[in-house]
Design goal:
This protein is mainly alpha-helical. The protein has one domain (about 1-145). The protein is about 80% helix and about 0% strand. The protein has helices at about 1-35, 40-70, 80-110, 120-145. Helix 1 packs antiparallel against helix 2, helix 1 (about 1-35) packs antiparallel against helix 4 (about 120-145) and helix 2 (about 40-70) packs antiparallel against helix 3 (about 80-110). The radius of gyration is 18 Å and the shape is elongated.
């Protein structure tokens, strides 16, 4: 069971980092190569971001649960497991805060207004940095989980 949990933890955290990176690349390219007005950009937020957050939450929650379940696995030191679990837990908490206090107000701004309010830009900037932080934490956690213990290493 611990083998399966460690494998799943490694995969889902890596999936999330890759998916979030791909998402950002696609969004940036679309915004760069297409002339979109603020209303169209807002509609894209409504279309794209629910899937982004759903996939992110499912990966990070699964990663946290399986990292904790695999915490005594012999392939990864206990210290690395604790760091990976802690980073994943902080990433999850950051994602929850982002969703509740940044994304949800952004979403409401987009769906309830004909023109975006001036606060939209500051929320959008905050969201970019918070997402960079939590995806970075997941990247570090995935690296910690993928770094196998050498023969003879202590716990």
């Amino acid at each position: 069971m611990q083998n399966w949990c460690l494998t799943v933890a490694r995969l889902v955290l890596t999936f999330w980092v890759g998916a979030a990176t791909l998402f950002v690349v696609v969004v940036v390219r679309v915004n760069h190569f297409m002339e979109l007005d603020s209303i169209m950009r807002g509609q894209l937020i409504v279309i794209r971001f629910p899937a982004y957050y759903a996939f992110g939450f499912s990966c990070v929650i699964t990663g946290l649960v399986t990292t904790i379940a695999a915490s005594n696995h012999a392939a990864v030191s206990r210290r690395r497991m604790v760091i990976a679990a802690a980073f994943t837990a902080v990433a999850l908490a950051t994602m929850v805060a982002d969703y509740a206090f940044i994304y949800s107000p952004l979403y409401e701004m987009v769906v309830s207004a004909d023109a975006l309010p001036s606060s939209f830009r500051s929320y959008h900037e905050a969201s970019k940095y918070v997402n960079l932080f939590d995806v970075g934490l997941c990247l570090v956690a995935a690296v910690m989980l993928c770094h196998s213990r050498r023969a003879g290493d202590a716990g």
